Amino acid sequence: MLEMYHAFAAAWGLLIGFDPVLLGIVGLSLEVTLSAVALAALIGLPLGAIIAISRFPGRSALVLLLNAAMGLPPVVVGLAVYLLLSHAGPLGWLGLLFTPRAMIVAQTILVLPIIASLSRQAVEELWEEYSELLRSLGSSRWRAVPTLLFEGRHSLLTAGLAGFGRAIAEVGAILIVGGNIAGYTRTMTTAISLETSRGDLALALGLGIILLGLALAVNAAAFLIGSAGRKSATPG
Question: Which domains occur in the chain, in start order?
Answer without folding.
Answer: 21-53+66-229 (1.10.3720.10)
